[in-house]
Amino acid sequence: MSTRLSDYDFDLPESLIAQLPAERRDLSRLLVLSRAEGSIEHRQFRDLSDYLREGDLVILNDTKVIPARLHGHRPTGGKVEVLLLQEKERDLWVALARPGKKLPIGTKVHFGTAEKPASATTEGQAPELVAEVIDVLPGGERLVRLSSQTGEPTMALVARLGELPLPPYISGRPADPDRYQTVYATHEGAVAAPTAGLHFTPELLDQMEQQGIRFARVTLHTGLGTFKPVATEDIREHPMHAEWYAIPEATVQAIRETRARGGRVVAVGTTVARTLEHAAKELGSPDLKAGSGETRLFIYPGYRFQVVDALVTNFHLPKSTLLMLVSAFIEQEAPPGRKGRETLLETYRVAIAEGYRFYSFGDAMFIY
Length: 368
Hints:
368 residues, alpha/beta, Thrombin, subunit H, nine-stranded mixed beta sheet, six-stranded antiparallel beta sheet, 17 strands
C-alpha cells in the first residue's frame, strides 16, 4: 500500500482529454478489467450487460447538476462570478466567488435585470436575484444568502440565469446541455455530474432490466471538491471534502435481497461507491441503513470495501482521490503480491496507447 502522492501520477497526452461527449452515450468505449486475473478487454459501453448477471443490482446516483455558475456585478459595477457549491439551508449557500478580495461580509451581488416599472424615476435596472455575503469561511469560500427580487422562486432564477459549471479541463460546451446530465437525473443539487452514469441510455437501461438486472438509486450531490487536487505528499493528510447524500429504504432492501440470492452490487461511479461504503462504515457492517447526511470518506489502498462488488467508472486525473479509490477497489481482489495502484496505472498505460478518452466526457471502465 502506498500513501505517497507521487505514486499516483502518470503522463496523459492532452489530446486524450475529451472536450465533447461521444455522438451517442452508449457508443463510448468500455475497458473491462478483471481484478482477479488482471485481464483487459476492449468493448463499447452498450456491451456492459454482457458482464452482468441476472440478479445483479446496479446502483445509480440520481443527482442532477444545477446551473450553479452565476455572472453578476456589485452595485458599484464591478463584475463578479459566483459558483454555488452546497446549500446549507433554504437559500443559504456555500459558494466560491471571484474576485474574493472585493467581496467582504455584507457585500451584495446583483444578477439579471428586472423590468423597471414605468413609474420609476431612478436610472438603471433592478436586479432579479441578489446574493448577500453572510460570512467568509476558513477556506476562502463565501456563505451567501440568495433572495429573489421579482417574486419568482429563487432556484427558478438560478436555473434561468446560471450556467452549468463544466470542469476546468473542458474548453468547449456540448450543443445539448443535457449531455452533462444522466438520463435518470432527478434530485437537483450537484455542481458536477456523476460522469460514469453519462453513458447510459433509456434503451440500454430497459434492455438490462429485461435481462433480469435490477436497479436502485442513491443521491450524492457531487461537489467541486471531487476535483480538488491532493496537495500533500502523504495522501492521508488530505482534507476530504464533504458531500450530501441520501440512501432510500428501497435501496437498502434491494441490497439485502441481492446479497441473499448471491447477486452482485454494482456501483455506477465513485460517488455511489463512496455513498454505500460510508453508510457501511457508519454501522461497521455491510448491512446498511437508510438515511441522509454528509460524507467525507476518503478511500485509498488499504481500505476494505464492504458493499460494492463491481464498479463502473470513467478514467480519472493523475494524483486524484478518485484514482486512489479505484486503486483500492482493484487491490482488494487482486492476487497476492499484485498492487491495485500498479495494476491501475498499467491499465491506464494500455488505455492511453489504445486512444481511450479521459475525464468527464471520456470513455468508461468496468471493473469486477
